[in-house]
Amino acid sequence: MLDLTLLDILEISKSSFKLDKKYYNNKISKFSIHVDNLSTNDLYFHWRVGEESLLFIDKALRKGAFVITSEEKYKKIELDGSKIIYVPSVKKILLKLAQYKRSVFDGEVVAITGSVGKSSIKNMLSMILSMNAHVIYTVGNENAWLGIYCALCNINQKTKYVVLETGASGLGTLSTPIKVVSPTISVLLDINFSHQGKYPTIEDLIFEKASIIGALRLKGKLIISYNTLNMLRNILNKNMCQFKG
Fold first, then answer.
1. Which residues, in sequence order, are CB contacts of 175 under 8 Å at separation 6+?
2. Which of 88, 122, 168, 219 sits 20 to 30 Å CA-CA off 182?
3. pLDDT digits (tens, 9 = 90+) for 104-147
4. Phi and psi, residue 226, nearest 5°
5. CB pairs under 8 A, 24+ apart, for 205-210?
6. 153 touches 97 (CB < 8 A)
């Protein structure tokens, strides 16, 4: 089941949120982390924090969307017909829904990572596939867990392909969400050392990016750049020599 009602979401997430039961059978049209493109029966994940972020909730409600939030200001709202759903953690419910959608989807899931070219490859591939099929893809450069999970949530009955740009900005930032993605095709582009950033060593950066390989589904396909393949070989050979020594 890929097209979900609010009751389905309640059961999948094992949540006990407050919401008027008259909305339970409303089918969600779209899941979003942005308010600008919302419409009636969409579901907005309010992930921002702070007083100013409350304006996003108000804007989403004016557009007829439902809102999932952990914002304390809305915690005490009673069953008054409001479309605000309070949960302890927006991230956890987003994760559970993404895991569910991925578990029941049997189409192709392409995950793309590397230091350069991710967005270009994602955009070109999505455009080509969209000519003959329904494609879900990450929006813009939203390649962290938030954008990845939201894209997975938008898989529906018509979807044939999912194309995800997956980024890494520190230890665990790719290796954790890529397990949820469980790609059938992994694309590992060139890795640029200037992106070492928050990684203790170059090896840590390369292995974080390479987690896209280990996450492949059984009989999945790997497309890897020649330069990155050589980097991995050199690191593995170096580690083997140290082990033997």
1. 168, 208, 211, 215
2. 88
3. 999 999 999 988 889 999 999 999 999 999 999 998 888 999 99
4. -60, -40
5. 205/168, 206/231, 206/232, 206/235, 207/235, 208/168, 208/171, 208/172, 208/173, 208/174, 208/175, 209/113, 209/114, 209/115, 209/168, 209/174
6. yes
* Amino acid of residue 172: G
State the residue for tokens 């089941």.
1
**CA–CA separation, 160 and 99 (whole Å):** 17
User: Residues 134, 140, 144, 146: is their CA dihedral positive or negative?
Assistant: negative
Tokens (6 digits) for 21? 């039961």
- The CA distance from 84 to 103, in Å, is 27
d(CA 129, CA 172): 30
Q: Of 227, 110, 230, 94, which Cα lies nearest the Cα of 178?
A: 110
Give the largest Cα separation in the chain, rounded.
70
The crossing angle, in degrees rounded to 10, of helices 226-244 and 202-214 is 110
The CA angle 63-105-118, to the nearest 5 degrees, is: 75
What is the spatial distance between Cα 245 and Cα 239, in angstroms, rounded to a whole number?
10
Distances (CA, A) of 10 to 21, 24, 67: 11, 9, 13
How does residue 44 score in pLDDT terms, banded at 50, 70 and 90? very high
In the predicted model, what is the mean pLDDT of residues 8-37?
A: 86
